[in-house]
Amino acid sequence: MEASAPERNRTAPSHDIPENLARDMDRDALSQLVRTVNDDGRGVSYQDMADRAATAGFPLSKPYFQKMATNAVPTAPTPDRLRALAAALQKPLAVVQRAAAIQYLDYQATELAGYDDDIRVIVAHLAGMERSERRRWQAMIEADERAKRDEG
Prior knowledge:
Distance between the termini: 39 Å
Structural class: mainly alpha
Number of strands: 0
Helix content: 55-70%
Order of helices and strands: HHHHHHHH
Strand content: under 5%
Number of helices: 8
Shape: globular
């Protein structure tokens, strides 16, 4: 069963952004994840994503990834689609599920359940950084992951 994205009682400043656009921008976590992987410098196309999903046994079309990236998918993905997205984005399923919950169910994380103290300390440090500094750390971590994959 697919859930529709929640309606929020938000008001946008009259001179800035229309209310429906502001709501969609606030509800963008999964779409943003797809865009980030597509635009992370590795050239992961929507077709590449579709191919990865199919290889993992959860086929999902290139147009679906394109729609997800532009926040044009109005209903929450099914569990199989979440698995396809995780495989396509090469992200842990829990990360994709959380992004979907934020985008479609108005979920707001308040803790880092399931992680040890080391991870919580790292996340706390990253949360206090400027966006550009966080992007630099993300790039270093992803470079390390790519190096390990290339070695193996």
